[in-house]
Please model this.
Amino acid sequence: MAEKAKRLRGVRDRLPANVLRKALPDGRHADGAGLYLLVKPDGRKSWVFIFTHEGKRREMGLGPAGDPKPSTESDLVSLRRAREKADEVRALVARGLDPLSERNRAQSEAAEAARATELASAAKEARDVTFGAVADAYVSGGIVAGQRIPGIAAELRNAKHIAQWKMTLGPAYCKTIRKMSISDVSTADVLAVLNPIWLKKPETASRIRGRIERVLDAAETIGLREGKNPALWRGHLANLLPKRQKLSRGHHAALSWEDMPDFITRLREREGIAALGLEFLILTAARSGEVRGMIWEEVDQEAGLWTVPGDRMKAGRAHRVPLPDRAQQILEQVKPLTDGVGLVFPGNKGRPMSDMTLAAVLKRMKATEITVHGFRSSFRDWVFEATGHPGDLAEAALAHVHGTAVERAYRRGDALEKRRGLMEDWARFLEGPSGKNIINLSERTSESASQSRA
Model:
């Protein structure tokens, strides 16, 4: 009996050709020389090869058993294919190799080859993506290299800011890198953009550098670049470009705070609503667009308060502005022009006056060396150099986003009453050293500072 079993173990191809169409009992059905058809209780069938390696009995699955349909992709393994696979395994065993280990190695190599192909394809795709394509998508949104970039247009809110981003990242300044592969942009390429304007237009150059840095960061995030960002300032371009103190001071040309009272005296000699609007802007340390778009519905004259809605604020959130006495006097002067309805400082035909209208006042005063926006810097310098008011109070008056996100989360108030004292001090300072509103500034600011710290 044992001799017969021994002979049967050496017989191959014992299963009939139609075995996969037969109803078979559970268990293993030998095809010979180590190949078995395994039938499970639920009727599923698979191929198993049993062999011995280094004295240990091992089992190796060869796939689900079945007859695949012609011309279709399937993982089913027919009887014929199972015997071919068994022969491949027998050959490995005959060479003293472990078929399971060899299969695992082959699968790893195949996976590595596939990954290499994928990386090569991705690299080629990355080289086909230009800086201009990523920059445009970064501003307006779009799909780059199969990945969607949402764009920052919604974050900017203001159409003017969106246009500035597009212009500074467009051919006007970035022509030399827009057609370059995003993966190839180097420090030398960024310097080629910045060097011609770094001394002539320092603020524009600084903004362009920051915007290029953000675009390149986005490219790295979606896998189009690797390595250090060539537009990084700290520890990189800071070593190659002049430091900020070597550039022109401030974001906008500003009048020295000491000269502000004399300027206000001259400004009050001008006639017209634009001159009044400019003085109101100075008194409230507001931005041009906030004043030009101001409507009477935003003003509570009884409370001496102007609330600018979030959609007209740079930070996107409402800002309450305490109105000093002189600012309220200006409102009373311009109120008859509109009967207290609609725009407070209307331009031609009742439309909002343009930014150039306020700038034209400076031009007529032959003050072309300063800008409208620069008066905010004059205010900030006055707070820092001539008063005892805390710096963060000035930042709040300027509606700047100040402090870390955590600090802002805990600081829910806007220090309105403290800011009211600050703005009254500012208005009194602007009256100058003569006239009925003269005050002792040092005593006033010391008193206000004490109240701010209380």
User: Anything to note?
Assistant: The longest strand covers residues 45-53. DSSP finds 19 helices and nine strands in the chain. Residues 4-9, 244-250, 402-412, 435-454 have pLDDT under 50 and may be disordered.
